[in-house]
Structure formats: C-alpha cells, structure tokens
Design a protein that fits this description.
Elements (H helix, E strand, L loop, with lengths): L1 H14 L2 H15 L6 E3 L3 E3 L1 H14 L3 H12 L11
Antiparallel strand pairs: 1-2
Helix pairs in contact: 1-2, 1-3, 2-3, 3-4
C-alpha cells in the first residue's frame, strides 16, 4: 500500500495536482512510520521512510514547493549517525 501511495504522489505531482499529491504524501508518511528503515522485497518493491522522503522531495520539486523539498532533505540528513541513508 505504501508503494502505491508513492506512485500516486509522484503522478499527482507531475500533473500539478497539489490536493491529490498532499493526500498521498500524508498517507505514505503515515505508513512509513511503521518502518524503522527501508525494506526491499522481490520484484523491486522498496518502501520505508527514506524512500518516502525521496519521493516527497521529487514531488515537492514538481509542485514548485522548493522550501518543502529542502526541509525534507535536511530532516533526512541532519543526524547521519542516528539515521544513516541506506537507499540503494
């Protein structure tokens, strides 16, 4: 379900649909909270807080919300010892 929300927010961002993108962003973050780290499964499924952050940053950029994109990345990288980046 989390991966589907990532796809939904990506598509909504590319279409410029802020309301739909925001709905998918909220749901993706809610689901990502249940994961301590990103997980990968067979078939290329990858979901977790870091992958969600990357998708949110890209979507914020698509929607020209550059300040939001920077804030998400700053939060993701502010304490590398506590939260090391593990994306492939």
């Amino acid at each position: 379900l989390g991966t589907l929300h990532l796809r939904g927010l990506t598509l909504a961002g590319r279409l410029g649909d802020r309301r739909t993108a925001d709905r998918h962003i909220e749901e993706a973050w809610n689901l990502a909270e249940d994961f301590g780290r990103d997980v990968s499964r067979a078939g290329g499924l990858h979901f977790g807080p870091q992958n969600t952050a990357v998708h949110v940053v890209a979507t914020c950029s698509d929607l020209r919300r550059y300040t939001d994109a920077i804030a998400v990345m700053q939060d993701l990288t502010k304490d590398p010892a506590r939260r090391p980046l593990t994306l492939p």
